[in-house]
Design brief:
431 residues; mainly alpha; two-stranded antiparallel ribbon; 18 helices; globular
């Protein structure tokens, strides 16, 4: 079964999704006349309170919730694996994918705010499931998408992240996975059971602090590796378009492998085109689809254009200066090798992985909660929360190979209905 799932995932996350998501990113970048040019304005809007906003998450809280679900192991470990397999040029293609993906994120968040619904308590709800139902008049497609969100939340957002917490903690301390799982479940449960405002407050405070802390550590490492910074940038550019493998021990770094692994990692880590960011965007209570779309698209900017870029530069500059430093590390641990040059770097990286995984637990729980509300109403949320918290513990103590493959499959299945809605309703999107 595991072998079959791996083959299906390799096929879907190969050409089919690269073409579909890459095509969507290019299409909306052109159609919306490069909305990325409003990035600075969007960042300013994200920290500016909106006048007349209804109850719900603020624009900044919605952005922080989106970042909570996307920032984490993909930016740290995923970039490491992409560079190890695809070479330095993979970072260039990952970065380009992030820039273009901002347009798709804007489009899906615009539509979700446009088709948002207001509950009896006055709180707004939305996301691709509501777009599919209200915009394309297909409740069955909306239900399929909502089921996938719940399954992805329990998989990608829950068990895989608690497993990452276990691995990070056990690299530093010989603690039982059962104890780690219980502590993670309790910590996340305290926030989750506090409701939407508790989640929004937690994400608004934790995500910016964690992000700036991690970026600050990376910038310090880049300062230490400053002599290799320009050579690293030159190597990235050359490898992105080179038909030959790069020197310096990078494996398989031809243009084909660089593009494949860089684009795939970029598409996977920022989730633009999957539609999950739109769930948080529509819950903001904003009455202006354009405003919230601009704010939400900065999640892709921070996730891929900034976080993945600085992580990749740290890895490549470290390997240029210290080519033997990665000896004994796996392809997914080049970031760990780079952080060993920082005093207490291993502990700092482990702390960052644990903290990011915890925020991802919170962010994905919120996505699943909104999908459960769509399917069975508010009465089913408590049961979903209980199941989610239990799965946090289970994820901390079980092998995760099967869960990762199932999660990749579910994420792929979410792309198709979401992109169908985007292209079918593209005439309604304005900038």
């Amino acid at each position: 079964m595991l072998s079959i799932l791996e083959q299906i995932d390799q096929f879907l996350w190969g050409l089919p999704l690269l073409i579909l998501l890459g095509g969507a990113h290019l299409f909306f970048t052109v159609k919306l006349r490069f909305p990325q040019k409003y990035t600075l304005k969007a960042i300013r809007l994200s920290v500016t309170p909106e006048k007349g906003r209804d109850s719900g998450l603020s624009g900044f809280a919605a952005l922080a919730t989106t970042l909570a679900a996307t920032l984490g192991t993909g930016n740290i470990i995923g970039v490491s694996a992409a560079i190890a397999i695809g070479g330095p040029g993979a970072l260039f293609w990952c970065w380009i994918t992030g820039i273009l993906g901002m347009a798709t994120c804007y489009a899906e968040c615009y539509l979700s705010v446009l088709f948002q619904v207001r509950k009896k308590d006055g709180v707004c709800a939305g996301g691709p499931m509501y777009v599919l139902e209200k915009g394309l008049h297909s409740r069955p497609l909306g239900a399929v998408y909502a089921v996938c969100v719940i399954l992805a939340a329990i998989g990608a957002g829950c068990t895989t992240q608690s497993s990452a917490i276990t691995e990070a903690v056990r690299t530093m301390f010989p603690v039982s996975p059962h104890i780690i799982g219980i502590l993670a479940a309790v910590a996340a449960g305290l926030v989750i059971l506090g409701g939407v405002r508790s989640i929004g407050t937690f994400c608004s405070r934790m995500v910016p602090a964690l992000g700036f802390f991690y970026i600050g550590c990376c910038l310090y490492l880049l300062f230490l590796n400053r002599d290799a910074l320009l050579p690293a940038c030159r190597l990235i550019a050359e490898s992105a378009f080179s038909s030959r493998a790069a020197a310096g021990g990078f494996v398989g770094s031809t243009v084909q492998s660089a593009a494949r692994f860089g684009i795939a990692r970029g598409l996977f880590t920022n989730e633009a085109g999957i539609g999950t960011a739109a769930i948080a965007a529509a819950s903001s209570g904003s009455k202006d689809p354009r405003r919230q779309g601009l704010i939400s698209m900065t999640a892709v900017f921070w996730d891929t254009v900034i976080m993945c870029a600085v992580t990749g530069l740290v890895i490549i500059s470290n390997l240029l200066l210290h080519p033997d430093s990665a000896a004994g590390y796996s392809s997914a641990s080049l970031t760990t090798a780079a952080f060993t040059l920082l005093p207490g770097g291993a502990a700092i990286l482990s702390f960052s992985l644990v903290a990011f995984a915890l925020t991802t637990l919170i962010g994905w729980c919120y996505y699943g909660e909104k999908a459960a509300e769509y399917l069975i109403g508010g009465q089913g949320v408590s049961s979903y929360h209980l199941c989610y918290i239990v799965m946090i513990y289970i994820g901390a103590v079980l092998p995760m190979d099967l869960v990762w493959n199932v999660t990749d499959l579910i994420n792929a299945l979410m792309v198709f209905p979401n992109c169908l809605a985007l292209f079918a309703l593209q005439k309604k999107i304005r900038i």
